[in-house]
């Protein structure tokens, strides 16, 4: 069985889901795909089920009732992948803002010694395409803010394109990961480092979606701003066993 699985959370991604799945399966390295759908009313899971006939034992679907948040979708996917003993577990968006061609780069970084790899927009300048300047500044300075609060020099704290080795996700107490949006990505990276794991950043070019609607909202951003302070305070009273 292939050792790598890509977790793709979806909500109303009917314009993108077939293309992104076919692209992943066209790569030279074999990846499995797990779609976590939060009750998309547009028919996204129907498309996935049709593709499962074409890609049996490679494409998997978990359907959940209603929008429960990005963080809970990934936690669900992490548990599913751990149970099935995948060694490399990826987070990736459905909308092609993350280029599937970069999956191999993230996996290579973990093979070469990292415990987790970030597809980073900011490790070499600002590599973002088609975002309005307001979004670029909000995202970039969110990472500056998190670096200031945590004292940890990660350039792209809010990145959602990730590869984790299974041992990282087995070590982290997933029940204690509480945030759901930007703050979920921050909390996962922070917790990984606090457990003594090594994270590396791999430069990518992030291209904003051309199909479908962004899920970004002011409430998600607000969670990140205030959640980081809460996370930092909570860490003072928590033990993180070495992984």
Structural commentary:
By secondary structure, this protein is α/β, with parallel strands linked by helices. 40% of the residues lie in helices and 16% in strands. It has helices at residues 17-25, 44-54, 70-83, 103-111, 133-150, 166-171, 182-194, 218-235; strands spanning 4-10, 32-37, 59-63, 88-91, 116-120, 128-129, 162-165, 199-203, 206-207. It has a 7-stranded mixed beta sheet with strand order 3-2-1-4-7-5-8, with helices on both faces. β2, α2 (44-54) and β3 form a beta-alpha-beta unit. α5 (133-150) runs parallel beside α8 (218-235). The chain starts with a strand and ends in an 8-residue tail after the last helix. The mean pLDDT is 90.
Could you give a short account of the major beta sheet? Answer: 7 strands, mixed
Distance between the termini: 25 Å
* SS field, number of helical segments: 8
Strand content is: 15-25%
Q: What is the number of E strands? A: 9
Arrangement of strands in the largest sheet = 3-2-1-4-7-5-8
Radius of gyration: 17 Å
User: Helix coverage percent of residues?
Assistant: 40-55%
Class computed from helices, strands and strand pairing = alpha/beta
* Integer average pLDDT: 90
Q: What is the succession of H and E elements?
A: EHEHEHEHEEHEHHEEH
Poorly predicted ranges (pLDDT <50, ≥5 residues)?
none
What characteristic shape results from the CA principal axes?
Answer: globular
């Amino acid at each position: 069985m292939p050792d790598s699985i890509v977790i793709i959370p979806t909500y109303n991604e009917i314009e993108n889901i077939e293309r992104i799945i076919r692209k992943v399966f066209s790569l030279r390295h074999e990846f499995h795909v797990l779609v976590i759908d939060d009750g998309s009313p547009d028919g996204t899971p129907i498309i996935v089920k049709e593709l499962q006939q074409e890609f049996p034992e490679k494409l998997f679907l978990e359907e959940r009732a209603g929008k429960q948040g990005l963080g809970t979708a990934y936690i669900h996917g992490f548990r599913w992948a751990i149970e099935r003993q995948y060694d490399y577990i990826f987070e990736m968006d459905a909308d092609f803002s993350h280029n599937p061609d970069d999956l191999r780069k993230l996996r290579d970084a973990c093979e070469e010694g990292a415990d987790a790899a970030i597809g980073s927009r900011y490790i070499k300048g600002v590599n973002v395409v088609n975002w309005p300047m307001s979004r670029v500044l909000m995202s970039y300075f969110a990472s500056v803010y998190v670096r200031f609060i945590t004292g940890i020099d990660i350039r792209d704290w809010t990145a959602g394109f990730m590869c984790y080795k299974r041992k990282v996700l087995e070590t982290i107490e997933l029940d204690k990961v509480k945030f759901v949006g930007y703050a979920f990505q921050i909390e996962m990276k922070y917790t990984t480092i606090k457990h003594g794991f090594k994270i590396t950043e791999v430069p990518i070019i992030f291209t904003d979606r051309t199909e479908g609607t962004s899920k970004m909202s002011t409430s998600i951003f607000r969670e990140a701003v205030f959640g980081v302070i809460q996370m930092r305070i909570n860490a003072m009273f928590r033990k993180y066993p070495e992984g």
